[in-house]
Amino acid sequence: MTKTKVEIPPVVKLNYSKGDLIIKEGDYGTSIYEVISGKVGIFVESGETEARVAILGPGMIVGEMAFIAGKTSTRSASARALEDCCLEAWHPAMLLNAYKKIPDVLRLIAGQALKLIVRMNKMVVKLRLKEGQSRDSQTQELSDQWEEKREFYREKVSLECIFRPVNSSKDLEFQGRIRNISKGGLQMTVKTSGLFNYTLTHGDELFISTYFLLNQKVNMTAKIAWLKKGKTDGFISLGLTFIHMDPDDRKKLGFFLMK
Amino acid sequence: MTVNSQVLDYIVSEENFSDKAVIIKEGNMGDWVYVILEGRVKIKKKTSGGLLTIDTLSEGDFVGEMAMLKWSNSTRTASAVADGPVVLGVLDSVRLGQEWEAQPTIIKKLISSLIQNLEEATKKTADMVVALR
After folding, report:
1. Of the partner residues B4, B69, B132, the one whose CB lies closest to the CB of residue A134
2. Residue A214 neighbours by CB under 8 Å, 6+ apart
3. B101 and chain A: CB distance < 8 Å anywhere?
4. Tell me, what's the ipTM?
5. All residues at 6 or more sequence positions from B29 whose CB lies less than 8 Å from its CB, including other chains
6. Fewer CB within 10 Å, N- or C-terminus of chain A?
7. Same domain, A79 and A165
8. Which residues on neighbouring strands pair with residue A1, listed in sequence order?
């Protein structure tokens, strides 16, 4: 055993009854707990909503996120006893020396995991919110709620798409590459040689289809808002505003844009 | 984000992947850990509604670290697919493994727990997205 100057408080065993709050989201604190018996639920709060993100059982650790994030961070989630349970509380000083000595690469990996968990948990809260609302009013579109928060948010992409002018024959088909996309519209680049002799002009309406995920086809109808020469010779760049999208496709776009 | 110089020191080889190339396949065994040197990598998870992109990682981020640091086994928890051309640095798995094993149990428990949380949070998110469709 190594000697340390700081006196480390002994490990204490704590008993909680079903429903007791063990850690409160937003509080300061870096104590770490190991579940000895019983089940602990991890919850992320958002306004009046609370989403359970994990259930932890014996042998599992509670509260390590704030420890890894450092002294100045607050608890990123709440922990509550789902049944009567016993936890062992470790003082952070117990771990601090050992944690300081770990190789940078492990610390960076832990940091990345932390960042991703926080991101996922935020997404779970958002989804839970949506779940509630779609139950309340079936007519409300899922994606509409993103619009408020993410107005004008554009996702940079590189998606192959096919398109044809709305009033053209169905045999006509051009290829383009979507460069960015938002709830309101998209920008794409098109190889001029691929258009043959067809001329696209401002105000033209196009049927566009692409795949967001491997098996997720999305159809959109959009109007050309602007067009200009592309950065690369032989390409043109088009700015389009959506004029129609089926609710299902709109929903897919909503999920695609959500990060 | 740039790649940390300490991490660069672990790189034993570089691998190039073209757009949409599968770097890691969910469910396969393996514990190679990569760091993204150039480009972006999409993390995809199998769901009942098909493959779902759950996150996009970029330069300096690690790929494949979960299987290595998991308490249970070395099954890949998600797929990693190149989003455009990608250059990955392969980390020295022997050195990383030895350093990991040399850590006190308490530290290993801590990091494994974190990784497990990430795995659960990811699964939960994917499930919810599918359920809402």
Report:
1. B132
2. B50, B51
3. no
4. 0.90
5. B67, B73, B74, B75, B76
6. N
7. no
8. none
